[in-house]
Design brief:
The protein has 328 residues and is of the alpha/beta class. The chain contains 8 helices and 15 strands. The protein folds into 2 domains: 4-136 and 299-312, Rossmann fold (3-Layer(aba) Sandwich); 138-297, Dihydrodipicolinate Reductase, domain 2 (2-Layer Sandwich), CATH 3.30.360. The protein has helices at 14-24, 79-85, 120-128, 138-152, 181-184, 199-209, 242-252, 298-312; strands at residues 4-9, 29-35, 69-72, 94-97, 109-110, 113-114, 116-117, 132-134, 160-166, 189-190, 217-223, 230-237, 259-262, 277-284, 287-294. Strands 10-11-9-12-15-14-13 form a 7-stranded mixed sheet.
Length: 328
């Protein structure tokens, strides 16, 4: 049986570099092309030094659309214009977009192609029967995995309070004031308090499960001084006991291979370099406190894209994604 083939567009950023690492070790996938407008003709390791010696071909100027799947690793609000300019997209080509261009319901139909919101723990069956996937945002992934079970049980009838911190790679590879080493090192700051762009997709995902959801989500995102990972703290008042809360989550995620509901304190070192989410539930003085930890580049981006690709092509979900974290 021949392998599936993949083309990647926008090959020089952190997300693309992580995606290429995962494609390289995926047993059912081969790389057809990686296109880049800035580095066409140059070797992959000119942007990703860790790939030297692993791939022979250089960046191309245009993607090979004869592949089975096209991964779009472009900037936000770039994927739609990019697809517009392609002269012909084969009907058989499946597309996985890692930007926010198709995540919201109002944006999901594009020239006859319907994009399914690609959080497998929410839309696994819809993804399997689809041809196009809008990969969720990294913060959205970490937060939604904490809230899906409560939405399923219709428990979200009060304001939700969230604080979460992300690593420097969440800002992308381009140099900017808040991402260069001298500013980020030994530093923590907040940004986009109460207005983060992922709030829209979070609200829509909750509403998919709890149609009458109309509560405020108070989200304070923070920048951390570490390279990768997201850690969230989410809480609201509850009448659940500790045992009932834990049982709810363990039951919900028992069939989802990448979410681990832990009885122990969790940390980023549980998940960095993996496609896993560690989740911890605590009931403290009438408040339900949920912690989640993910790698923003893997479970929050490229690993989730590979997970979605596995579903699109009816492969076992964990194919190419059984990755162990590096604890040191």
């Amino acid at each position: 049986m021949s392998k599936l083939s993949a083309s990647v567009v926008g090959g020089t950023g952190y997300t693309a570099g992580e995606l290429l690492r995962l494609i390289y070790q995926h047993p059912e996938l081969e790389l057809r092309s990686v296109s880049s407008t800035s580095k066409a003709g140059q070797p992959f390791h000119s942007a990703h030094p860790d790939l030297e010696g692993l791939f022979d071909q250089p960046f191309s100027s245009t993607p090979d659309l004869s592949a089975d799947v096209l991964f779009l690793c472009l900037g936000h609000e770039v994927s739609k214009p990019y697809l517009e300019q392609l002269s012909s997209i084969p009907d058989s080509l499946k597309i996985i977009d890692l930007s926010r261009d198709f995540r919201l319901q109002a944006d999901r139909v594009f020239h006859g192609r319907e994009f399914i919101y690609g959080l497998p723990e929410l839309n696994r069956e819809k993804i399997k029967s689809s041809s196009n996937v809008a990969n969720p945002g990294c913060f959205a992934t970490a937060i939604e995995l904490a809230l899906l079970r409560l939405g399923r049980e219709q428990f979200l009838h009060q304001a939700i309070h969230i604080s979460a911190i992300t690593g420097a790679t969440g800002a992308g590879a381009s140099l900017r004031e808040t991402s260069h080493f001298a500013w980020r090192n030994n530093n923590v700051s907040t940004y986009k308090a109460f207005t983060h762009q992922h709030l829209g997709e979070i609200t829509e995902s909750i509403s998919q499960l709890q149609s009458n959801f109309n509560e405020s989500i108070h989200f304070i995102p923070m920048r951390g001084d570490f390279p990768r990972g997201i850690f969230t703290n989410i809480y609201q008042e509850t009448n659940l006991s500790q045992r009932d809360a834990v049982d709810l989550y363990k039951t919900y995620y028992s069939s989802h291979p990448f979410v681990q509901v832990s009885d122990n304190n969790i940390s980023l070192k549980n998940v960095v370099n993996t496609n896993r989410c560690f989740l911890q539930v605590q009931v403290i003085e009438g408040r339900l406190l949920i912690h989640t930890a993910i790698d923003n580049l893997v479970k929050g981006a490229s690993g989730q894209a590979i997970h979605n690709m596995n579903l699109l092509f009816n492969l076992p979900e964990t194919t190419g994604l059984q990755l162990k974290p590096t604890m040191l």
